Amino acid sequence: MFGLLKKAWIPLTLVVVVALGAYAILRIRESNHHEPRAADGSGITANFNPKHITYEVSGSGGTANLNYLDENGQPHLIENALLPWSFTIVTTLPSMSANIMAQGDRD
Q1: Is residue 14 one of the residues assigned to a domain?
Q2: What range defines the domain where residue 6 resides?
Q3: Do residues 89 and 70 make contact, with C-beta atoms less than 8 angstroms apart?
Q4: What digits encode the pLDDT tens for the residues 36-76?
Q5: What's the predicted TM-score (pTM) here?
């Protein structure tokens, strides 16, 4: 009997330590678990005010080639647009990068 105990004491100790560690981890996780509440900000948020972005290009008559980004960030090219030119975008996206480039045909 003592011969078997001499050979098996390390694996038995390891099993006991792993079991106690797993039990402790489960107890810690259960004690820190909480149910989500509506006040935690997990609910549906209402849309915020729409943003109005207006691109404007002015000049002394003539035409211009225009490159601008729409509300989805996609580039658009308008060739030979009559000046003055303007375009308005309305979006509810939380962020939008507005960019326009114009190249005119006059000095």
Answers
A1: yes
A2: 2-33
A3: yes
A4: 665 555 556 665 688 899 999 998 878 999 999 998 889 99
A5: 0.52
